[in-house]
From TrEMBL:
Ranges in coiled-coil conformation: none
UniProt-listed Gene3D superfamilies: 1.20.120.1080, P-loop containing nucleotide triphosphate hydrolases
SUPFAM superfamilies tied to this protein: P-loop containing nucleoside triphosphate hydrolases
Identification of the protein by name: Uncharacterized protein
Originating species: Vairimorpha ceranae
Signal peptide start and end residues: none
Parts of the chain that traverse the membrane: none
InterPro entries in UniProt: DEAD-box_helicase_OB_fold, DEAD/DEAH_box_helicase_dom, HA2_WH, Helicase-assoc_dom, Helicase_ATP-bd, Helicase_C-like, P-loop_NTPase
GO molecular function: ATP binding; helicase activity; hydrolase activity; RNA binding
Keywords of this entry: ATP-binding, Helicase, Hydrolase, Nucleotide-binding
Limits of the Helicase C-terminal domain: 308-476
Pfam family, one: HA2_C
Amino acid sequence: MDMRKDIIDVFNTKNIAYTVDLINNVYTYLTSDNYEDLEKIVSKDIFTDLVNLKKITEENFYGQDAQLSEDIFLKWEIPNKLLVDKFTVEKPIKNYDLEILNFLNNEADIENLDGEDSVEKKMDLITKLLDEKKIVLVQGDTGCGKTTKIPMYLLKKYNSIVCTQPRRIAAISVAKRVAHCMGSKVGDLVGYAVRFDDRTSAKTKLKYVTDGILLNEMIHRGNLNRYDCLIIDEAHERTINIDILLGICKQIINENSKLRILLMSATMSTQKFVDFFNCPFVNIKHKVFPLENYFLKQYNSENWFYETIKTVIQIHNTEPKGDILVFLTGQEEIKDAYQILTTSLNLETCKILMIYSAMSINDQEEVFLNTEKRKIVLSTNICETSVTIENIVYVVDSGRVKQMRHSCFLGLDILETLMISKAQAKQRSGRAGRTGPGKTFRIYTKQEFLQMKDSLLPEILTTNVCKCILTIKSLGINNLNNFKMIDMPNPDSINDALEYLFLARAVDSVGDITDLGRKMARLPLDPYLSLTLIRSEELGCFEDVAIIAAMLTVDQIYVDVKKDDNFLYKKFLAVKSSWNDDRGDFFVLLKIFNAWKKEKYSNKFCKYNFLSLRNMWQAKKIKDQLSFMFNYNNSSNKSKVIEAFSFGYFMNIAKIKEDGYYTIFKQTECYIHSSSCLYKKREPFILYFSIVRTKREFLKFCNVVTPEILCKSVNNVFIKKK
């Protein structure tokens, strides 16, 4: 290291973190009493400030696990007036400690965006390895160009490329960006395919798709022979669909296939992939700017949401210009945060935006538009890797994420709020500092960070695997032992899934998929709804069941109405109760949709009834898609609706007990949720759509079901269970 040059560089950088990091690197040099050489190359005032900085660093920085307290910054302001004038000194927000991350490894990283390890410099190696090994793993931080540049380069060699994305917004936005870069219209050379939206043509050579779309294509076609190259992007996310695709890739490379496979990951947790595939590994580095990470000193962890909001407000009011990205756990928290911030901040100086998977594409795209105001973007973990928003200077990381966990013992899916992993924390921090120095404010302590898991469990180990197993069997793999996966589901989950599929007649007594099972697998729904729809066609009530299924598939149909607005909330409750039906919640959904249809899908109708216009239109799209797939004959027999659902949801039956209910299959004690129109009613048997856990287990979307209907369901399994 040229220490003289680096010391001068201290005064040419605009980020205090780099300065302190540099002092740290040349500590041995600075602790010497001989400053003669140093005095010759810097002015007297700067030299004095540097010596003072060294003393403060020596007294406060070393021996404290590389953390700087707020006091150090306060001391810098007093003796180092020149430093304050020379730098944009960004004081830590109150109640935080600062951790300096040394991302600046060498001058090449600082000076050159397309450095030695850029995508362009690695492409010859990647294509060579693909020729030789069939499958290659590429690791590169978000923003290095994996998703956009690599597929474009591969088009020079391959005629048909498909690139999977875990989210529809990523597939669409990346396809649009790549098409623009290549001077093509979306749907010509470059296109995308997601649910309800296929923008491809016979000209398309590079197609971005969701992993679910590609799996569905395989179920219908049986193979991937139409493609020369398969790219699985964001492989580190380890969704169930990604894990199934990885298992398929394992089979393909063992066969005499011409298909070449490229796995791409944004995290360094790549050893599992390398071991599983025995494949070569290419690492891509790219320019990174100085990044400061702030940890909370102390806080009440139960108040993490309000600490997050408070931090956003403090950043906006005290920090220099730059957009803010805020990571929250889900749609509900995002909407709550939006409401608080819009009433707390001056909207003439900032623009508050939301982004989550359930939003419409038009609404999502607004976060990518430049604005003169400071943007404050409220996001789920969708912005960790799948979506890149430029010009983010500040990240506020709540440190939490929602994850579904399936309990085999209780027979229910539990949506839990968990601490994120260290890998996720790094990904979130990396969203700042892409175009200049950045800061991340972490709503957790350093100790909490150190206690985080390196990575969270993959989805296949935490959720219901019924759909997963049916998909694998529909691909011709009846013996699950012959299908290798990076992580196999736990045996209890597999047994639960096989029990349901056998009772549903989707698999036979030896576990082979049946014709009914194949038909269920082709539908873009979970097996429970798939079987219900198939049965509804036979019973002559498809129209009604398809509407209910569509309404159940979307997020909540009502808009959020806060209880503190007493007048509006009372009006909302009155409107909501007007739809109540003694038969249950499925018929409430059916009545609402049919009334909206009668009003010719009026926006005014949705507004008056507190309905989410976006979600209602989403339900209509799903219903229309299902109608197209079944070629239904407009049959509507409401007396058969619950009978159809009892065939798909025969495991979702609860029986009355003294002060609540218990589920028949798992004997789980439960209660009807307060949102149900059957709340506080006492029916002998209830068919429910889902069971959720808060302080107790609650049944949601409940419906009255008779013993006569239950006896007709799937070989009288309920009689056998008595």
